Amino acid sequence: MIHRLLDRPRPFRTGLALGVILAILTGALVTGSRLDGEQGRLCRSLVPALEPVGTLVVTSIATEPDARHGVRVDYTLDGVSKRLRCAFAGGFLDQGRSQLVAVETADGLVGDARLYFLQRFWLGDPEALDEGEARIGGIGGGRPLLPLPVSKDVGYALQQLLNALPVSAVYAFLAVAYALVYGLVNRINLAFGELAVMGAYATVAVITGFSAGLAGTAGAGAAFAVLAALAGAGLHAGLLGGIVGKVVFRRLSNAGHRAFLIATIGLAIALGEAVRLAAGSRDRWIQPLFGDPLLLLDGGFRVTLTVMRLAETLGAAALLTLVLVAMHRSRFGLAWRATADDPQMARFLGLDTDRIATATFVLSAALAGLAGAMTALHYGQASYGAGTMIGLKALVAALLGGIGSLPGAALGGLAIGLGETLWSAYLPIENRDIAILTALVLVLMFRPHGLLGIDRQLGDAADRRWNAGG
Questions:
Q1: CA nearest 381: which of 284, 288, 306, 287?
Q2: Does 132 share its domain with 186?
Q3: Do 379 and 278 have their domain in common?
Q4: What is the pTM of this model?
Q5: Is 59 exposed, middle or buried (0-12, 13-18, 19+ CB in 10 A)?
Q6: How far is CA 418 from CA 265, 321, 389, 414, in A?
Q7: Which domain holds residue 57?
Q8: Chain segment 143-199, per-residue pLDDT in tens
Q9: Helix 406-426 / helix 432-446 crossing angle, nearest 10 deg
Q10: Positions of E strands within 231-363
């Protein structure tokens, strides 16, 4: 399907190469050993709780062969070698991955009551963990990758900016999807939020399907499961978008804005109910993947970035760049712009505008599906009722950047993601969605064509030309 969207092979080869490079990088980050990084970090964090006095130096962290989901931490206390063993309820893709079931020291197994208190009042207390981390030396310690002196306030702000990147990527994907459809047919498709939800459920289904064969591993197999989930979500949503676009939306091209808008609302309701009937009304959960934190800065506030967030940010940036470059330089991109500018002249010049419109619906729906897949991988959750809100926020992003402009829509997604995250960090979180939707009203009132969008009069003229071409 992609080679039909991008007739020139160079963009396709570039995207394939970027995907292979990202897969290699992701695999390299997690395949150094079969050790589950999160379990190793949890077991290591117990050392200062069990050794409250003395100088601690961790010398090694490895899997424990005598336990199915076990980790062994070797350390020294005032120069004396010691060992700590931890066992967990599940493996890499299991729900019990972070649940301690047994801890063994040189004095024997830790009792159930003490084990409960360790999990509840030590591992569950960030301040206690930070105090304990300050006492540990050796491997896996708190040495930052960027030894720069930063204040607590600056570190906190940098952490929020990093937290905003994956969220911004989700909104950027959906905003570009809005812009692709609106830029071509001068219509807004309000079903992208539900397409994203379907992508999230497809991702949960794929990861759950892989979990039986990959439980207990933390390597390339899990990275392959993530890539398979992303591909499955994109293809599933893209196929559905192509069918709906060709069977329904293309037939409504001459029916006016209201009919198209009502049809997309109906489609959104139908998709939401289909997901609810197929998967149930309960939220679906998966174990968050690749959550090992990379310590970037450590001043008054520890700035971290997980492997998954790094992969999400790099992958989203690469894919969005590929889409924007391809839409600017490929034959399909040129045909899309020609059809968007003057569909009747495009038909006179021999362009198959129906095929271009169908391909646009496929590409935009695939981007929506990938956005949903990213939310499922990021939060470990799929909820059938999340489509409306995420779709409206992405629409705000598209309108803010310019719903007829692909770069503007991506820029709007970045702005909404940053604004939402910073609002949650510094202002009452219960008012966050109110602020985002208020921004939608203000944009429609004072800047209806956005920062980089097409003026409404030009859009109306393009709409008349499209309808005249039939």
A1: 284
A2: no
A3: yes
A4: 0.79
A5: middle
A6: 28, 19, 17, 6
A7: 37-138
A8: 777 777 888 888 889 999 999 999 999 999 999 999 999 988 888 899 999 999 999
A9: 140
A10: 284-285, 293-298, 302-306
